[in-house]
Amino acid sequence: MREDMFEVIIERPRRGGKMPRERYRRPRELEDLPRCESMARGRGGTKGLNENLAPLVRFFRSRLGRPWNEVHAEISEHLSLRSAVQKHVLDHVRQMVELHAVLIDGRAYHPTTYRHHLLLITPGRWGGFYVCPESGRLLEAPPDRPKWPESVPDRVDLEPGYEAWRIEGLWYRVRFAPVPQERAGLRDVLLRRRIDETGVVGPGGALEQKYGWRYRYAAEKRQMSHAEIAALARRLRRESLSQMRDGR
Q1: What's the pTM?
Q2: Which of 104, 146, 148, 220 is the most exposed place for a label (fewest CB within 10 A)?
Q3: pLDDT in tens, 151-178
Q4: Sequence spans of domains, the chain
Q5: Chain-centre distance of CA 89, in angstroms?
């Protein structure tokens, strides 16, 4: 660990601007004093902390797999508890590394509970570091990937007018709209064709072959977020388990 790590983390220009010079001027007369003034914090040019924790994250990732006692000793070697500024770095260490993790089915959880449930340690902006309770080594939690049922369809109904499509391994949220009378310039984003072309709309057309209907087309699509994909995976798992219980 670099000797000036605490300076890199703590001694960084703080956010916020300077207070206007006229606010510093002492009023000359009693009548110039304001009758009331807001007590809200952060007003009038107050600066806030602007700590740079990225070097600390990089340090932890470079020490993954090593015994935590060695990593902590390396940190403490360059920090002094007598200095409030340097002690603040150790406070960040305690916030970023879970020292008392609980392992359940190979996943690491925080020891504290929320609504009687243990909280899973997940990677975030500043990492999801924890000390393995079995080996005592510094580890980082893997991404919380959604658990899908054994068979996953490539096309799932969402709310009316929307469907989820899996295309080349990526999930997209697709909005369908009725085919209007004026079709000039409109394209189907999945077919990648103009809907005013011959053979797209109508019986036996490209829309019917692709979707099973004749007079609706894919107007928009966007790639689904991780949260949307996780919610979709949970829904499909619930439906799959429900079908298994019903014997279908």
Answers
A1: 0.49
A2: 104
A3: 889 999 999 999 999 999 899 999 999 9
A4: 5-14+50-140, 155-245
A5: 25
